[in-house]
Amino acid sequence: MSRPHPVYVGERFSYLTVIETGHRKGKVPSSLCRCDCGNEKVFRNTNLRTGYTRSCGCMSQKLKSMVRQIEADPGCRVVSLTDTSHNANDCIGSGVRLPRGMSSAAMI
After folding, report:
1. Bridge partners for 28 per DSSP
2. Residues 30-56: pLDDT tens digits?
3. Sheet harboring 16-25: ordered strands across?
4. How many CB atoms within 10 Å of residue 16?
5. Nearest 5°: phi and psi at 50?
6. Cα first-last separation, the chain
7. Distance of CA 33 to the CA centre of its chain
8. Per residue in 56-95, pLDDT tens?
9. pTM for the full predicted model
10. How far is CA 106 from CA 9, 74, 93, in A?
């Protein structure tokens, strides 16, 4: 098993800045971080290093809020595009599949 890379004070991981190291969540090395929104929270070092944790949760809330605003516009529709490289039906371009009922997709 390889030894994990340490996390240093002042290091940035997306929206988080490490302000204190040496914490533990259970037995897992963790660090106290400050998010760009001002919240402070302890995160596991491995989650910071791998990019699994990028904010205190505020960015997820902002994204959900943006999706709700787009969905409220009657002319817009939010869909999830999936990679389906093996199905030639309902495909536009390479590996993009449209949801049922949609005949085209556009990115603005």
Report:
1. 25
2. 999 999 999 999 999 999 999 999 999
3. 12-13, 16-25, 28-35, 40-44
4. 22
5. -80, -15
6. 46
7. 17
8. 988 888 888 887 877 777 776 666 655 545 444 544 455 5
9. 0.60
10. 43, 16, 12
Q: List b or e across 19-41, with b for residues whose CB sees 16 or more CB atoms inside 10 angstroms.
A: eebeeeeeeeebbebbbeeeeee
In SS3 terms, 46-87 reads as HHHHHCCCCCCCHHHHHHHHHHHHHHHCCCCCCCCCEECCCC
CA 98 – CA 89 distance, rounded (Å): 9
Consecutive H or E run containing 43? strand 40-44
Contact 48, 33 (CB under 8 A): yes
Residues 6+ apart with CB under 8 A from 71: 77, 78
Residue 56's CB: how many other CB atoms inside 10 A?
20
Q: CA–CA separation, 44 vs 52, rounded Å? A: 10
